[in-house]
Amino acid sequence: MLKELAFLLVLCTCSAAVLQVQEASAHNEKIASSLLGAKNACIEEKRQPSLADVFSVAQIKIVTLIPQVENVTSDQAEPKLLWSWSADFPDSATFLLDATTECPAGFIEIFSPGNASLTEAKLVYHYGQEKKEILLKKDGPNPVMLELDSSRLLEKDFEQFYAVLQTKLSGKVSVEYSYRKTEYRLVCQQVGEFEVCGCEAKVSLGNQAFEKNLEDEREFFVEIGPVQELWLNPPLQKRLQGIQDGKIVLFARRMPSRISISSNGEKLGSASIYSFEKEVGKCRQMTVKSSFEPKGENLEVEKANKTVFPFQLVEKNASYLPFYAEFVWDSEKGKKAVQILFEDWFLGNETFSRDFSVRQPGPFFPNQSKEIALIPGTDEMPPAAYPAIESKEKRAELPDVAIVIVFVGVVGAIAAVMCLMPLWSK
Question: Based on the structure, what is the number of domains in the chain?
Fold first, then answer.
């Protein structure tokens, strides 16, 4: 119990969220309401209003996911979609009407606009084999909670490193103006024997709504796991006392922020894997970029150049990105429990445990009868045997078939490790 408590304390001291991701998420939540109904929330280039389109700015936009690093989120992070809509238009304007062959062009004056309105707004997103539609209003909700059901994923979603989330936002923006319309029409009168024609102005007053359809589409990537470890050294759950290198491959479908390794409550090594940088986007949203820059204490980490399908080494056949970790392990004899903590970019944790028997070889002498003496292996000492005096009888030899089987097994293990070596990049 004390050992388990000590291990938990070690994990608590080394476990930390990616600060930049937390700060970006908090910032984006804070600005969410200001993105709805602003004149130009995302710094859109203004256009010249016309009678066909009175808006100098009219936009609906998928801004970002919360949380998000670059274009990636996690299915375990309860992601939400941040969106915006904007509308800007003149307080008053005059537009020419079409001229006729007989009369000059009239004009229409618009003035006293009402407030812009967003109608028929909705978010449609596809994830795996599932399609969902969420109705929106001009004042929200923002951000919009997404339901990413991993049980609805297809096998092809695991053939690439990330699952794909397709999103589409649509709506109709409108504004109502008062107007004064002046039109010229040809009027003819009979004056004596002659017909006299001229253009006469006709003025009308009223209200008119101007509308514009809006939409935006964007594709995101979603981490969907799993993560699995493979021990390269020691390959078995037994090792000798003293200083040895621990070597592990972590087949990951989630990007690591930190990897920590502990044994019986004592930290063996830890490393932060990526550095993160915040940037501000056009909608004032905060985005996060990542760079592979491993920095650690007694833990060296390398990343493969490309993803692999290690179907013989993992439970779930999928596309993984291998991370190679190596650390120095100096241990006393006895039973040892080694724990690996894999922290991802989005506060998700994967833990792996493995028990080892750390042994110290000792002197071993035959018993008094000179017979074969055996000592079974323990957590502190390897098995040993002292042979009896050689008998004149012919000793049974290891069958040739058994020798071949052992040889093939050793060669196969070496080949599996050698196949991984070209994947690593410094």
Answer: 2
Q: Write the DSSP assignment of 27-53 as a string of letters.
A: HHHHHGGGGEEESSTT-PPP----SS-
* Same domain membership, residue 180 and residue 115: yes
Residues 58, 103 within the same domain: yes
Closest CA to 320 of 426, 246, 401, 420: 420
- Put simply, whether the predicted model's pTM sits higher than 0.85 gets the answer no
Cα distance between residue 401 and residue 398, in whole Å: 8
- Based on the domain organization, do 148 and 248 belong to the same domain? no
Domain with 195, as residue range(s), is: 39-223
Give the distance between the most distant pair of CA atoms in the chain.
154
C-alpha distance across the termini of the chain, in Å: 40
pLDDT tens-digit map of 325-361:
999 999 999 999 999 999 999 999 999 999 999 999 8
Domain boundary at 201, 223, 245, which? Answer: 223
- Residues 46-77: pLDDT tens digits? 999 999 999 999 999 999 999 999 999 999 99
